[in-house]
Amino acid sequence: MKYKKIEGEKEIAFIIYGIIEVRIPKKVYYRFARKYSDKDIITYCPHKNVYNAITKRRLYYIAEENDIPIIGHTAFGLIDRGTNLIQVRPCTGCNLNCIFCSVDEGRSKTRVTDYMVDVDYLVKKFKEIADYKREKCKDIRIEAHIDGQGEPFLYPYIKELIKRLHGIADIVSTQTNGTLLTNKDIGELEKYLDRINLSINSLDERKASLLAGNPSYNLNHVVNLAKEIANSEIDLLIAPVWLPGYNDEDIREIVRFGEEIGAGKKWKALGIQKYIRYRFGRNPKGVKPMSFKRFYQELERMGKGLRLYPQDFGIVRCREIPRKFRVGERLRVKIEMHGRIRGEMLAFARDRVIQVTDTNKGIGDFVDVEIVRNRHNIYVAKEIK
Ligand code: SF4
To answer: Which of 38, 113, 139, 181 makes a 20 to 30 Å CA pair with 234?
Structure first.
């Protein structure tokens, strides 16, 4: 375990792998320190608070021993949308603050909690879903797609996760903003990773950092990384978000850049994404989202093959894992964890996470709820008042 120890006025903070911040009251720490090592104190001390060192939000570390399910929420764990692709979401939190971020990541006004899932737990449950799908859909090629509400390469066990998923899935792909990856990482992951979806939103340094919401965003690093990926065994898909009025001309330049460096050898080179306004996302002032019709027309005008279809990535329908609740079902649940945004709390039942929205209930409270959403095993419930 790699960690840095910081002694504050009232607490001792341990920053583990640069992301997990464990804070222990000084008095408690020094009492334990007489008998135990720092590593034991970090692991076993019950009087600790855990935070994400980047976002400074409260962080839940989810391991199998905690009996917390990892299916049911969009922010962490596994999502099966009824195809051969299984989304793997190891953690939340981001080192950038993109001005259009659909999940308001980085310095956030809406997100109050981060989550991180233990690698053994994630891999074990992924295999269970992959086995189920292989049994239900013959000759299916399973893709593990590592994504999430944040930057996957902040996950301290990301390389281990990729390597182990490679032993289970037929294809392993990931999305990233590229800022934390190095050329050496690409060399190391080449044998295990099939595709990287890399966000580049402008090739102009000033604009790229404005869009990233981070003055220290290093475009040069990300551009060089793109070239390195394109020259490796890993397929590169460049995935800019088109923000009308901000990066219209830049999108055309990115398309040309993708062609020049040889992105998309096995799959598509470009995955241009339409900016969409989300209620809990970041929505820059004055930006009018394009309609889907206009967006697709513009893509077709810009070049052949820029509009993407599921079949471009070999995505096919395959039986979804069984749902555990139906919409309208009422049940009594215990609130177990804080939710991702204010007013949301999490409960667990039948090996699923349930998001209880618009509630002022606290941890340990029991509440009667009605399931209002169960699509793709993502459960949202309202309190029955
Ligand atoms: S890199 Fe992605 S997750 Fe991070 S702030 Fe930008 S859009 Fe959001």
So the answer is: 139
* 4 Cα: distance to centroid of ligand 1 (angstroms): 26
CB-ligand 1 contact for 106 (6 Å cutoff) = yes
Q: Report residue 104 as tokens.
A: 């308001």
Inter-residue contact 292 to 241 (CB < 8 Å): no
Quick one: which of 45, 42, 41 has its CA closest to 16?
42
Residue with tokens 């090739």: 203
Annotated domain spans of the chain: 3-53, 60-313, 330-383
Q: Is the CB of 97 under 6 A from ligand 1?
A: yes
Q: Tell me the C-alpha to C-alpha distance, in Å, between residue 32 and each of 16, 49, 228, 344.
A: 19, 16, 48, 35
> Closest Cα to residue 242, out of 307, 184, 305?
307
Helix, strand, or coil here: 132?
A: helix
Phi, psi of 374 (to 5 degrees): -135, 10
**In whole angstroms, what is the distance from residue 91 CA to residue 89 CA?**
6
Inter-residue contact 335 to 346 (CB < 8 Å): yes
Per-residue pLDDT reduced to its tens digit, 310-340: 999 999 999 999 999 999 999 999 999 999 9
Distance from Cα 330 to the centre of ligand 1, integer Å: 36
What is the residue type of 91? Answer: C
CATH 2.40.50.140 fits 330-383, yes or no: yes
Distance from Cα 103 to the centre of ligand 1, integer Å: 8
d(Cα 87, Cα 236) in Å, to the nearest integer?
18
Looking at the DSSP bridge assignments, the partners of residue 236 are: 196
* pLDDT tens per residue, range 142-201: 999 999 999 999 999 999 999 999 999 999 999 999 999 999 999 999 999 999 999 999
pLDDT at 303: 86
231's tokens: 């020259």
345-349 and 380-383 strand pairing = unpaired
User: What is the CATH architecture of 60-313?
Assistant: Alpha-Beta Barrel (3.20)
